[in-house]
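Quick illustration, no need to memorize.
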Amino acid sequence: MAVKVVAQGTGVLLVTANVGSLFEDPENLQKLWLREFYQTVHTHKPHFIALHCQEVGGKNYEASMSHVDLFVKELLSSDAMKEYNRARVYLDENYKSLEHFTALGCCYFLHESLKNIHQFDFKAKKYKKVTGKEIYSDTLESTPMLEKEKFPQDYFPGCKWSRKGFIRTRWSVADCAFDLVNIHLFHDASNLIAWETSPSVYSGTRQKAMGYVLDRISDQRFEKVPHFLFGDFNFRLDSKLVVEILCSSATMQTIRAADTNEVDKLIFREVDNDRKVVLQLEKKLFDYINQDVFRENNGIQHLEYDRELSVFKDRLHELQISFPPSYPYSEDSSQGKKYMNTRCPAWCDRILMSYSAKDLILKPENDEKAVVYDNIGPNVCMGDHKPVFLSFRIAAGAGKPIANKHKCCVVQ
């Protein structure tokens, strides 16, 4: 796979992947996942690859961490990646540390033709040349080449202190500096609670955490540079509005728990047509009669109910979405397009950027495929989340050159 850094700029591939499912069924899912990932690399031939993973180790991470090590070893040694002769891998595997564990993983691969690349040392406040392949997995808190934070415990209202937070690294590629942020925000704990209000209480919690991250990566401790945020944002469609649309001609039946009198289930039935059930809603059930509405035309008619990012429209940009909701897909390795009936399908996995980062992206005339924002493995099982990628090129020196005289930008 010959890749040359030529006049059209440096090829960059950003990928976000919630990989929790892979470690539940490593024999089948991992092989499919890696095959599709390698195919994406082969198609776009990037010089710099950033793979941001969430839920590294899966739900049973104590038992699955050995599978994580094998997964990373395969990535680093595979024939498909042999031209990427430098790599940095950061895995938060310290599950015994409740106050620090995020289950985030960041993998960066550098093509042999890429000569001028440096990574920022947040402690020394200087850039360092990247050589060789290195893996860090024990205590990322002491690694000066990144910043890692778990969200404070008071950000987890009414639920346990789970693996949610962010990791930031800073890079200089082709004399262009930028931050890459791996992020995992809070999920919807209950479909019933999400349905109660518009917007839901969960979207408010995600908004608070997102604001926290944006403030941290743009504070006064370091020089401000363009940033890309990609991860599992857990953004959901406005459930109340979506249910109103999907069940516009249905009547609602409420079933309450006998012991607590709390709502246990909502059943929406057609007024006529033998009162056929259209939708059943429980804490962890979203069983709609016709899943195709989320697949037809890639489900983009539902994007109008995808509103959580609008709060940050002055601070963050996203390219046009043209792929189906990225979650929750069936974890059956023989099913590639089927959604589970646990949650309303949504675009949880995204790649966002500051407006200064948007300006780094080279958009040649007459080349519509120069910038591609899409999912990976649309027709095969990739786990409950489809990975999402952004492929683009950076023009040499497009951003702030690292060679300027700022103290934090000294190259070592």
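The CA atoms of residues 374 and 389 lie 6 Å apart.
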